[in-house]
Amino acid sequence: MPMQAGTLADEAIALARDRGTIVALEADDGSRDTELLADPEYAGSMLSTLLENARLRAANAGATLRIRRTGGFVEFEVGDHGGAVEADEQAVAFDRFSPLRPRTGLTTGLELYKVRRLAELQRGRVWVADGPGGETRFGFSLPLAHHAGG
Questions:
Q1: Sheet containing 23-27, strands listed edge to edge, beginning at the edge strand earlier in sequence
Q2: Which pTM does this prediction carry?
Q3: Rg of the Cα trace of the chain?
Q4: Residue of 94, 101, 105, 96 whose CA lies nearest to 20
């Protein structure tokens, strides 16, 4: 069902802030108003999981949520300064029982796997990459509503 990228971001940021996470938002022009084809519950869970992952990895030092429209997709990317993720860890970060664990807090090893599966169910994808200044970025994409048939 169609939903606005900005609404999804606002709801996830509010929840993260209730948990004590400082979140900065960066959005390309018009990306907040972009309609995406996603299950609101799934998409909200995915974004909340990445924000919680950032909180745990960076010991609550804050996160940056970036939204951008690219091709037929909207990308959501959460950056944190919880330390580098080595290339071999990046390759398996979204696997079931991933060896990649936050620096603080307990996890099941299924959180990022759940994000991957929910993205795949909605014709999206996931990634983890190094960003500038030692930032690590975890992200996912979801299809635009008007590209749903193609």
A1: 23-27, 63-70, 73-80, 136-143, 125-130
A2: 0.90
A3: 14
A4: 105
Give me the pLDDT at residue 42, please. Answer: 97
Q: What CA–CA distances, in Å, run from 100 to 33, 69, 83, 91, 145?
A: 34, 28, 12, 10, 33
Pick the CATH number of 2-147 from 3.30.420.40, 1.10.10.60, 3.20.20.190, 3.30.565.10: 3.30.565.10
The residue extents of the domains of the chain are: 2-147
What confidence tens digit (pLDDT) does each residue in 86-137 have? Answer: 888 888 888 887 766 555 455 667 899 999 999 999 999 999 999 888 899 9
Nearest to 77 by CA among 68, 66, 85, 69: 66
Q: Which helix (H) or strand (E) holds 130?
A: strand 125-130
